[in-house]
Write a structure and sequence with these properties.
By secondary structure, the protein is mostly helical. The protein has one domain. The chain is built from eight helices and two strands, in the order ααββαααααα. A two-stranded antiparallel sheet has the order 1-2. β1 and β2 form a beta hairpin. The longest helix has 17 residues. 27% of the residues are buried.
Length: 143
């Protein structure tokens, strides 16, 4: 039984990796990832870039990204889902019912807490200069 589950998980991850849209969103995350103190991480550029590339129809794809091997991709997907309102929150809540491991459970819990924060602002309202906004590398095609 365990072998069947592992095989199914591998097939699903290969399917996601073979999806051109998935690859495009991963490229957006990678092009806008910050580096500080020799550590790669998510910053507001990452989140704003990914958010500018997705619409409600991409929620299933963002949900798949929550299981990506790359932690930066998982973080970016979670916080963009938070920014997508009720539909994004519902996707996070659904994923939180069956987290794969402790790391995923904590990621989902933190994202859902952020969604409930009274201080949270939409990504589009994040204060950036025009120069900073123009440096964000988004998608080839807008949703």
């Amino acid at each position: 039984m365990k072998r069947v589950v592992v095989t199914l998980a591998l097939l699903l991850s290969l399917d996601a990796a073979a999806d051109p849209r998935y690859d495009e969103l991963k490229r957006v995350v990678n092009r806008n990832t910050g580096i500080a103190h020799m550590t790669r991480g998510v910053n507001m550029y990452t989140l704003i870039a990914l958010r500018s590339c997705v619409a409600d129809g991409d929620i299933p794809l963002l949900t798949q990204m929550l299981s990506d091997r790359d932690r930066v991709t998982r973080l970016a997907a979670a916080y963009v889902l938070v920014d997508m309102g009720a539909l994004g929150r519902a996707a996070l809540e659904q994923e939180a019912t069956h987290p794969a491991d402790v790391d995923e459970r904590m990621l989902l819990r933190d994202a859902l807490q952020d969604a409930d924060s009274p201080d949270r602002k939409p990504l589009k309202d994040y204060p950036l200069t025009e120069r900073e906004r123009s440096s964000i590398k988004g998608c080839a095609k807008k949703p």
